[in-house]
Write a structure and sequence with these properties.
Layout: H1 2-16, H2 20-38, H3 56-81, H4 83-87, H5 98-125, H6 128-146, H7 152-166, H8 169-180, H9 186-205, H10 207-212, H11 219-241, H12 274-281, H13 286-316, H14 320-350, H15 356-375, H16 388-416, H17 422-449, H18 455-472
């Protein structure tokens, strides 16, 4: 019964999907009008956290952005779980080698990496809501266009275009949330938002079911088109329910600031050049260390996002419909639980130890790296005899580590830099992480075409996870 209902809903969305570009145009017009009314420049915030906690609009922002980031990662993960359907070269497929498929993934990551610092810099200077909204509309329209691609060249173009749009989202969203949450709720708010990433990846695992199961059977093209339409439609929610944070009013009894409250500070943000921002960020060694650490963490994370379903198919002979959910479900359940638990632990421990938000992911990565290496030993020729359940459980420890990092990275970053430049700093972190992901995504396909098991690059990534964990304990303590 549920499958029939869900299948009917998906087919209803697919009937609407041709209107995606028209709806996107309407959203863009409305967004521009709102932006002109509210102002495009970012507004300065008071240095101290608001009295009485962050307030309702801070938590509404987390809820609205949770759905946005869920759609973000659903759309980008969908390509990996539909690998076989896309590359089969049949009537609806696009013939390509696995190395070429890796390049499609890498095209997104290369563009995404290169533009992440640009997106962060713009989010530090202009309305973060407006940047988030534009990013959502453009990547959803590009998701729809991906389903219309007829050639390898078109597919790689649209994945690159998705990298352009998505590069602007994460730095702006995390900076907006941590602007609202400037006290002891910062890790929890960040963790709740980042949990939407894992929900999107879990749901994307069922993209293969939506595309291929008889109750839905949309095919990979209509699956992309359907969820592109859903993303564009959700932009209306963002327009009306997401607000840039404003300084609290000096109202009677310390009332919480409304989203349309007039700022108490200066109306325009201070002007700063990219050179000034970079000089500030790289004062001391903290930023350089964080860049290396995030790159090392990114090798395993991006490899699993791009190649984990195919790795399970190779190791255990699973079908695409079986491998997709298995690959995305358990590791992302681990991430989901970890991002929330790590946020709670980090915020509680932070009250007693100002370095706790760095120690939590450090411990998790030092434990998870060896688990990933052990899981890949059979792929390296070691006769360990691990089954599917044990392999998935061990690899899911990477999810525990990644969840702890996602909950604490922005708070750790903001404790080591000038907070005015937090979005730019996070954009630079994305640059190194995603660049590492682009490299390992291409390497996975190259090695597979050469007859080398996908477990080899994942084993290397496990070693880098341990190094990443150790680095957390050596971050500078002065400003933590």
């Amino acid at each position: 019964m549920f499958a029939e209902f869900f299948g009917g809903m998906m087919k209803w969305f697919s009937d609407l999907s041709p209107s995606t570009l028209a709806v996107a145009f309407v959203v863009a017009v409305v967004a521009v009008l709102f932006a002109l009314k509210q102002g495009l420049r970012s507004k300065p915030l008071p240095a101290a956290a608001p009295q009485g906690g962050p307030g309702k609009w801070a938590w509404i922002a987390v809820a609205v952005l949770w759905v946005v980031v869920m759609l973000n990662y659903f759309d980008r993960q969908l390509l990996a779980v539909l690998n076989s359907s896309i590359t089969n070269g049949g009537e609806n497929g696009i013939a390509m080698t696995q190395a070429q498929f890796g390049m499609v993934t890498s095209a997104f990551l290369i563009v995404y990496a290169a533009l992440s610092p640009v997106g962060g810099y713009l989010a530090d200077r202009f309305s973060r809501k407006f940047i988030i909204l534009c990013s959502l509309v453009v990547w959803s329209a590009v998701t729809w266009m991906t389903g219309t691609a007829q050639t390898y060249e078109e597919l790689i173009f649209w994945r690159g275009a998705m990298g352009v749009s998505e590069a602007f989202y994460i730095p702006a969203a995390l900076a907006l949330i941590s602007d609202y949450h400037r006290g002891s709720t910062r890790s929890m708010a960040t963790g709740l938002h980042m949990s939407g990433i894992y929900a999107g990846q879990i749901l994307a695992g069922y993209g293969a079911w939506i595309a291929n199961d008889p109750s839905c059977a949309l095919g990979w093209r209509l699956t992309f088109e359907t969820f592109g339409f859903i993303g564009v439609a959700y932009a209306f929610v963002v327009i009306f329910f997401l607000h840039d944070p404003k300084p609290a009013e000096d109202a009677e009894g310390g009332a919480e600031a409304k989203p349309d409250a007039a700022p108490a500070a200066a109306e325009s943000a201070p002007s700063f050049s990219i050179g000034q921002v970079l000089r500030s960020l790289f004062t001391g060694r903290a930023m350089a260390m964080l860049l290396i650490m995030y790159a090392f963490a990114g090798f395993a994370n991006w490899f699993l996002m791009g190649w984990y379903p195919r790795l399970l198919q190779d190791m255990f002979g699973l079908s695409e419909a079986e491998a997709g959910p298995t690959a995305t479900l358990w590791v992302n359940i681990a991430k989901y639980a970890s991002v929330l638990l790590a946020a709670v632990v980090a915020d509680m421990w932070y009250r007693k130890n100002r370095h706790a938000r760095a120690y939590v992911p450090g411990i998790c990565f030092c434990l998870a790296g060896p688990c990933v290496i052990i899981a890949m030993l059979p792929a390296l020729g070691v006769p360990l005899g691990l089954g599917l359940v044990a392999t998935v459980a061990l690899v899911s420890m990477q999810g525990v580590a990644q969840g702890s990092l996602d909950a604490t990275l922005m708070p750790v970053l903001r404790s080591h830099i000038d907070e005015r430049f937090s979005a730019t700093g996070y954009g630079l972190l994305n640059l190194t992480s995603v660049s590492a992901g682009a490299l390992i995504s291409w390497l996975g396909g190259y090695l597979k075409d050469a007859g080398i098991a996908l477990g080899v690059p994942l084993s290397i990534a496990g070693v880098l996870m341990v190094i990443c964990g150790l680095f957390f304990f050596f971050l500078p303590k002065k400003n933590a």
